[in-house]
Amino acid sequence: xxxxxxxxxxxxxxxxxxxxxxxxxxxxxxxxxxxxxxxxxxxxxxxxxxxxxxxxxxxxxxxxxxxxxxxxxxxxxxxxxxxxxxxxxxxxxxxxxxxxxxxxxxxxxxxxxxxxxxxxxxxxxxxxxxxxxxxxxxxxxxxxxxxxxxxxxxxxxxxxxxxxxxxxxxxxxxxxxxxxxxxxxxxxxxxxxxxxxxxxxxxxxxxxxxxxxxxxxxxxxxxxxxxxxxxxxxxxxxxxxxxxxxxxxxxxxxxxxxxxxxxxxxxxxxxxxxxxxxxxxxxxxxxxxxxxxxxxxxxxxxxxxxxxxxxxxxxxxxxxxxxxxxxxxxxxxxxxxxxxxxxxxxxxxxxxxxxxxxxxxxxxxxxxxxxxxxxxxxxxxxxxxxxxxxxxxxxxxxxxxxxxxxxxxxxxxxxxxxxxxxxxxxxxxxxxxxxxxxxxxxxxxxxxxxxxxxxxxxxxxxxxxxxxxxxxxxxxxxxxxxxxxxxxxxxxxxxxxxxxxxxxxxxxxxxx
Length: 512
Prior knowledge:
The protein is of the alpha+beta class. The protein has helices at 2-9, 41-47, 65-69, 132-136, 141-155, 180-183, 225-232, 241-256, 258-263, 315-319, 322-334, 344-349, 352-365, 367-373, 378-399, 407-420, 435-442, 444-452, 456-477, 488-511; strands spanning 14-15, 20-21, 49-53, 59-64, 81-90, 96-101, 112-113, 116-118, 168-178, 190-202, 217-223, 275-276.
């Protein structure tokens, strides 16, 4: 809407609260001065005019670099704006160029990071403003123009060294971080960006001119992936939070076959924008900002059902609930629940080693459900047990926010689950989920062994519900549910997939 109005009136308006200047969509500078060499860090903070965005990377205005990076009670995470991160590689030996940001930098000084990190700006020639069409096509030329400008400004790499077509645009990430390491717990500075990740290569670094600007960079280093990992593990070295996120989620796969990364779109995602909260040390700031996305923080994870805020009470407070303590002691020691697994029918029907694993992992991934499932009649106990474990395995895949290169990969795994995990007796998955949920996927052939011995009607029901639930998960994987569903109809549809199908499956299994 803002862009449409800007096209009609071609005017500038200022939002005084956040110092955001709305802009026309043609990328012309409507409020900030053009960037130029010879400016100090403070000058650049005042004069650079960054691209202000909404959460979907749509351009909605502009702000000074300074205003966008201020963390305060009015804007606890600054102002969301567009950025880029360049990773420059030497094709002859596969090394990447790192830089250590100068001590004179106002935000995140002295941290090691990727080759070049900065912002596309309004009012630049060549133009640095990209629309959604350029992003969807995988060729944000404006961001690439900005990268060429800043490679020269920060590293002294001549402007004619690279063309926009030399850069490989891989993906975007939405992150924020308060610069509390530099400025303390109430830091007035931080980053809040949708960051475009760009790869570029040179044939041999010996032929590359690199003359770092002393007000931008303290040091540079060409490193292998192994050397980078050693540096990241060195507690004496500081690294930028955005680069840590990129390395953790993607870098190993992208780097191990650099030619494939540069010449194909295998690792590209031009649609989704993964969201990340910062490491704990970068929470807070002057606005006392807490987690925004709750992704990747294991302290917020409950089982395999998502990252959520958890409520805790002290031991003393829990002991004050005398009736609950009495019930728990009775259940554990006076009248403990007995499992119906140890029956002749179950012993004759199922492999005891596989069943023992399923029973043990059931207790670990869900103590409450385990207690109920074990009380079921022996004729349906194992069917419900396996039904639960199959859906738990499926949900673990859906819930993992970091294991997959992009949502397309996850969606394919989800939609194929009923044809792979429930058909192939040797199917398993490693590196997905945490703790016991990960073990469940690693040892899934044992679950399949028990599943294969179920009666045909039960197998049919479990397969059908698994397929339907996976299709529903795939539908919602790419949707941002941080603020809830869009409307009541979508809410009901979401509830159907995550809860209604379980009820349908149980009803059908009871009557199978």
